[in-house]
Amino acid sequence: MSIYHLSPNGDDTLNDGLSEGTPKRTFAALAQTWGDTFPAGHSVLWQRGTSYHDDPVMLWGGDPERPLKLGSYGDGESPVLHSAGGPAIEIYGAGGLEVRDLEVTGDGVTVCGGVIWANLHPGFDGPARHVLLERLTASGYGLGGIVATTGGQPVHGLVLRDLHVHHNAVGLKVGHGDARVRNMVGVLIERVLAEDNDWVPLIDDSGYGVEISGLVDSQVRNCTALRNGAVSDNPGHGGIILHYCDRTDVVSCRAVGNTTPTHPDGQGLCLLSCRDCRILDSLSVANGIGGCSLRSEFQPDTGPNKVEWPSERCIVRGCTDLGSVICLHIHGAVRDSDVTHNYFTTATKTADDYREVVDISTNLVDDSDPSKGRMEGVRDVRLYANQFRALGNAVLMGLDGIETLGGLEFANHLGMAN
User: Which residues touch 319 (CB under 8 Å, ≥6 apart)?
Assistant: First the structure.
């Protein structure tokens, strides 16, 4: 197992790259000795305090028992890998990968990821293990700053931590290519700062800070999403969004200012079509329709073949929302879930700029109209021991028809702020 060194002052012809004193200049020259498949157990290190232009890393392979390591050496700031027209780092395989202490920057236009790890080829990749991405910065990519995805094969033990993703279409994007497939098990995402990621044309799910799907028995901890989707003033944006996850917790996270004045539907912290998931001890400030959200997805929008995927047995506990357009949003087929010991208030807004504290929407459709299809509503959701405080004319929405919601319990402290 060898350690290779890269430096802008290196020499691709004379140097072997095996020491800091004999670095190669480009990754392309180094990769010529390997072919497309990277050698398991080797390390590739870029010199700190330097930058590299249009010298992308693209490899196939992976051995979880002998991981390939990409990193840095020397003193100074993390090496910067600039890439125009494509990813800076793109690796396909069954795991066995550690990437740390690098910064990647794109051209701000090309629809691609900055750092991509993908397990997409069942006949080649196999189930994936041992993938670690940490202490990375990514900006300027028209898909996702950092992307970790899989196809039909399961992924076990993916770790993403200490990441800074900004000015991308999506900051951090994790999950199966088909969001409804839940096969990324034991994932840990922690200490991610996602800020100023924004909506871009042709990318439906852009404008999100952290977008996650398909996790099972996983944790998202101590992550922060700031001002995502707040510049372009287009719909489709949010802070930290989980869809189609099972038994996954969002703990001690923060979402601030993920909305726009014209399209105030940016969500702060959201569970969408999740099962047995929790949002715990987290903070939402000045987001859009749903500082804290429990929701279900449905497709298509109309017609007899409409299908809805419920959120079931979810919990929102110990959270605070200050001044979002709607502090608590429960929408669609949300079942057997608890919202408890939270504090929701519009107190950061003026009386003339009122906001709803809570909106519960049933999405019920008449079975007798086949053109509309069938959608389920909120059922057996318990709201208790919460505090709701509001300015002047702020209101509680969606509660007039409690009898139609089926088992909704609402026992909280309601307060009005002067």
Answer: 269, 279, 280, 281, 282, 283, 284, 292, 342, 343
Q: Which helix (H) or strand (E) holds 410?
A: strand 409-417
Strands 326-331 and 320-322: unpaired
Contact 225, 242 (CB under 8 A): no
pLDDT (0 to 100) of residue 180: 79
Mean pLDDT of 398-408: 45
- Check residue 403 and report its DSSP letter: G
Cα-Cα-Cα-Cα dihedral sign, residues 169, 172, 174, 180: negative
Residue 334 token pair: 């949300």
205 band by pLDDT with thresholds 50, 70 and 90: low
Say which amino acid occupies 88. A
Instruction: Kindly report the pTM of this predicted structure.
Output: 0.91
Q: Give 24's DSSP letter.
A: B
Q: Single out the residue of 204, 178, 173 nearest to residue 189, CA to CA.
A: 173
User: At 240, phi and psi to the nearest 5?
Assistant: -125, 110
Q: Distance (Å, rounded) from C-alpha 234 to C-alpha 262?
A: 8
User: For 283-312, what is each residue's pLDDT tens digit?
Assistant: 999 898 889 999 988 765 555 566 778 899
pLDDT at 117: 92
Q: Name the one residue in this structure whose structure tokens are 């950092």.
A: 146
Q: Which of 275, 293, 297 is nearest to 284 (CA)?
A: 293
Residue-level pLDDT at 403: 39
Length of the chain counted residue by residue: 418
CA contacts within 13 A on the Cβ side of 279:
32
- Looking only at the bridges linking them, the beta strands covering 307-309 and 297-299 are antiparallel
* Of residues 410, 390, 415, 391, the one with CA closest to residue 399: 410
Structure tokens at 154: 């399961």
| Residue 317 one-letter amino acid | R
pLDDT of residue 326: 86
Which tokens go with 90? 């793109």
Joined tokens for residue 129: 């293990």
